[in-house]
Design a protein that fits this description.
600 residues; alpha+beta; eight-stranded mixed β-sheet; 18 helices
Amino acid sequence: MADQLHPYRTHTCGALRKSDIGVRTRLSGWVHAKRDHGGILFIDLRDHYGITQVVVSPASPVFDEATAVPRESVIRIDGPVEQRPEDTLNPSLETGEVEVRVDGLEVLSRADPLPLSIADEQEAPEATRLQYRFLDLRRASLHARIMKRAQIIASLRRRMLELGFHEFQTPILTSSSPEGARDYLVPSRLHPGKFYALPQAPQQFKQLLMMAGFDRYFQIAPCFRDEDARADRSPGEFYQLDLEMSFVSQEDVFAAVEAVMYGVFDEFGEWPVTSTPFPRIPYAEAMLRYGSDKPDLRFELEIQDVSELFRSSKLRVFRSVVERDGAVRVLSLPNASAQSRTFFDKLERFIKGAGGRGLAYLILDEHEARGPIASAIEPEIVAALRELPGVGNDHALLFVADQPRKAAELAGALRLHLADLLDLRDEQQFAFCWIVDFPMYERGDDSSWQFSHNPFSMPQGGLDSLEKLDPGNILAYQYDLVCNGVELSSGAIRNHVPEIMYRAFGIAGYSPPQVDHEFGGMIRALKMGAPPHGGLAPGIDRIVMLLTQQRNLREVIAFPMTQNAQDLMMGAPSEVHPDQLRELSIALQLPEPTEEDRES
């Protein structure tokens, strides 16, 4: 009978049920856990699909071998499926009503001692987890997240196809272009001294597909950027749902993306999802109300501008800021009486730590205003503050004053800090919104105009706005998709008119010959008939991070790098043989080692 079985398994370790009792089975998997109960050995055998309990009695011819096999070894067992005794049923396992009585065993691969625990998922240093990622991936929680990632991607792909999009692949080896981050460069052997670049995004290629006459494109696209890591941004590479559509307005793009995002978050999330259409919030309004262009809408605490109230105030610290074209922003915090003086002192230290000059506050009781600045504020200003939306008795008004951009950032940081301190968020929801009407340009460090977002975006008002408006007042058809304070995607309606493209780049300091040189393929295509088109690219890693309730992208990526862009498992980046460098016509000119390098 055994010779007629599959060489490794007749069932997976998640397949056996009560209906299989009496069946002779063969299972293969990892030794997940071992327990010796009065001489009887119990082994939890694990594979990708689940866990099955197998039992080895002292009378079994393989008892000694089963006793000696280390955890995480790979074994094959044979035996009949039996009913578990009533007092050993395990409702937490799908196979929890049965067990396999082992009468045959083969060790397929014996495991050495392990650097981290698998079965109980004890905490391990991150460096250990990354160096032995193949072991870390055996842990049930991480294994499940990577599987959910695969399911989410499959759902995204299915939904895109249902909406009439077609999947195309774009080049990985391309030319370098100024898209905001550093490129990863690849030297060319056939063209000494020249380099390919790994794409920061398939931006130009997907636009060229629209100009080639394909109507709806998408791709689960790898992107490469040589930039520093954050909790919500992986160093090196990441994946996005890249899409582009022809003959569309901004609202057409929103409708398509909302259908996909709502569907996926409703399918895989455990919480309510913002109903479609998602709220549209202009960039300037988002910066005022939330101090951020990726606002967390899971709590209602909003920022208000009170600059004009203090323009003629005797409170000189605020008046002087307003006179220098600065801004005074305020947050109204209820239940002020529940907070101590120490609480407000800590908030002031937080603001100073964030780069602000300090925090002023005013507590409004029913009949008076009190606090460090109460005596310096005119009664009519206090009365006006009481009339602000959302302000009431027993509210603390928290003020920050600085130049408008800095004041917005400080107030936004304070808003999020208060949400953390006071547990203000409704954590169990997915709160989506679109941020729209981004400024086309912003001042650089040298006061020149730079693109503030995607340089290929269509300015609102077209050529007319570029020629007649101050660059700082030009808005673009650019938009971000935000969920729970996480930016999932940036996108735009594209500039498809060559004259507008030249003028837009001219404001940013590019001459027409430079545009032709840097973006020759794009300009040539635009001159040969280009449809109005637009798109965006939601980040796969961030989508999965939200849906699995993780705070770090490394918890949803199979083989992530460290914070400083190292692959500890494969040893990348690594030195290469001098022969390889000679073949590529490359000579290394390494920086002098620092004292820290010498010590390490």
